[in-house]
Amino acid sequence: MKPIAAVVAVLALMPIVLDLSAYSHNLLTLAFLMISGALAWNWMGGFVGQVSFGHAAMFGVGGFVAARVIIATSLPAPLAWIAGALVAGIAAIGAHPMLRLRGPYFSIATIGVGEASRFVFTYWEGFTGGASGLSLPIDADLKYQLYWWGLGLAGVVAAASLLLRRSTLGLQLLAIKADVDAAADVGVSATFYQDLIFCLSGAVVGLTGGLYASYFGYIEPSDLFGFDRSIGFVLMAVIGGVGTVLGPALGAVVFVLLRQYLVASYPQLYLGLYGLLLIVIILFEPLGLTGLGHRLWRQFRKVRR
Amino acid sequence: MARFIDLAFAAVLRAGLYATMAYGLGLIYGVLRVVNLAHGGVIMAGAYLGWILFDRFALDPYLAIPIVLCATFLLGIGMYRVLVRHLPRGAAGGPASLLLLFGVWLVLRNIAYGLFTGDDRAIRTSYSTSAVNLFGSFLEVNRLAVLGVAVLVPVGLHLLLRRTYVGKAIRAVAQNADSCTLVGIDVDRIYTLTFGIGTALAGLAGLLSATLYSVNPSFGAQELLKSFVVVVLGGLGSIFGMGIAALILAIVEVFAIYVLPSYLTTAVGFVMLVIVLIVRPGGLFGQRVLG
Amino acid sequence: MTALLAARGLSKHFGGLRALDGVDLELGAGEILGVIGPNGAGKTTLFSLMAGSLRPTAGEVLLDGEPVSGLPAHRVVRAGVVRTHQIVRPFPNLTVLENVTVAALHGKRRAQGTAKARAIEVLEFVGLADRAADLPGVLTLGGRKRVELARALATVPRVLLLDEVIAGINPAEAMALAALIRKIRDERKTAIVMIEHVMPAVMSLSDRVIVLDHGKKIAEGAPAEVVKDKQVLEAYLGVGNG
After folding, report:
1. Treating both helix axes as pointing N-terminal to C-terminal, what angle do A103-123 and A56-72 enclose, rounded to 10 degrees?
2. Which of B72, B124, B136, B249 is the most exposed place for a label (fewest CB within 10 A)?
């Protein structure tokens, strides 16, 4: 816990102490948002072991609800974001019938959710503004402050991940992940815990969507609800280490940087590169960068003798 | 009434396509217990291959069938040997296999973008648009041809699985892979073969799709979903059952398209999936395996 | 006296296969009931039905007169009936202590103290306290059976269903486990139903024995009588052994 606090403190002071360029400042803000999203995805995908390919649905719901609230009312942005999170969380609970599914069934169902929500929300112009999306009122101050909002959120989500993993709840999730039936045989209700975690995961991702909306000032359904968005969450967690506590945070940072570089240099190849990354990581180091780090650390300690 | 017959025929024709798609997914899942998330990508690959052969070499799609079958068969073998066989078996393999094959799908997609751009492509032969008059309905020739091929697939599959040694070995491995090693069956080879057959069927479905609809690199998610619906609804062991399931799905879809606004029709596949998965909870654990 | 656990007309059909066909049984408080029978007789199916892993095709299971059949497994555990598995299934990614703690979380209703403390206590009871930090994978089969047993005990059950706990381990460990089972009944006042193939164990531990064959109950009574029952001998050895 203390390292998290330390890192957060350093990052919080950075823009004040150093003179960060707008580019860096914004990139970091985006990274913080993605860290929260990836960590939240990992609660489902890594702790419980249910891989979701449709998290964009909740990201989008949160984003558009927050945007609508901002546009329609004079409520401060944070409240709008919370509204987005709440609606996303409720929508996640609506996925309850799906949550009884296991393994591949669940994952394919999430592909369905992602696809269906993309289509439905793109055409629901009243909510999302259709294909042309929504523009939020410009607020340069807010965009600047989003750095700290994002950082704060990332810190809280990281701390929550740590607490969750170490708690008895976390233990039960791991039991469900290992052997759902044996878990039931000792009294663990898989459906209840999956509902709970999916709801929390969805709410956090929805919250992230709200901040994202404020950050960009203009959002469209194909971006927020897109397949690429869902793939992004998966990839961030995999790169960093699915199932590790904080690995996805690292994965998110790498992903954001990678994307910036790729979008600039090889816009046509990024999907394939994501795919290759997934393949290589799953085959050679399933725990991603975290696993790699552990391996190197162990090598290092052997050599030090 | 005529409208109804039109819709019914449309459903039957669609069902053939869905069944072909589903057999590929179902075979792999039934034997290897792996859900081939790259299924949609392979369908897309088959479609594009067929299109290229048609566009560059003026090869009639139905003549291209053997080529596409071979190519996607080899693709599947490659996928298995290079990638899938290295996955851990059992519970740990679950998320890993999903992610791995998802990665393959992304790569396939990107290759398609690179080679063919994001534009829609379709195979339209000179006879594509001609139609035959049957019971007062006009049935397009290309749809009938697809149905014809699609009917041959389950027959061929049935013969393969029941009458050949390889087929019996496949069914045996599906039931109990460990026992098979005891009687001298090379399980890994059977897995390789099965994966190849599964992807070949997917490729074929893709080729047929391209003659009826259009294809672009984002193609695949809907097809994966629908194949999955058919597999779960139809029951893993039953070729016949999957055929019926394909018909049910097609009928629901065709009538939904007739009744619902266009943007909701894509949700039909998903809704069917959710309903099917709820009605058959726990998926395939209680069902017959191939045999 | 109402039985603590009772099954009435319990049946389970899988398509045409009648895995269990109209089985009745009663378990009194503090009893150890043995269940024996040839392979495929339906013994594990019986447990699955009683523990909630499967729903009966017909019949019911009553705990203290209240129906529990049809409840999902985790609810049955909370009601007080827990089973172990024939092929042990410890959570491979959790330590021995963690394995038991997960179960202890659901014994809350009938016990005091934190889950972890109770887990430690159970581990001491089964003699695994020194292996608390190990992963189940490094233990012997006997050790893993104890983990499974500890896990079941941590839920503070009123009825414990043991599925071939003694089979497959060396005689010394088997004797120790048998003693442990008796200890469970005596000290924890838990009624036990045990499926077993190891005859000496069943005979010495059980107060009563029932015999299943092809899904039906073919005999019931004190161990010594059941062993001599003609139908039982036929079931195990085949017809025409006289």
Report:
1. 30
2. B136
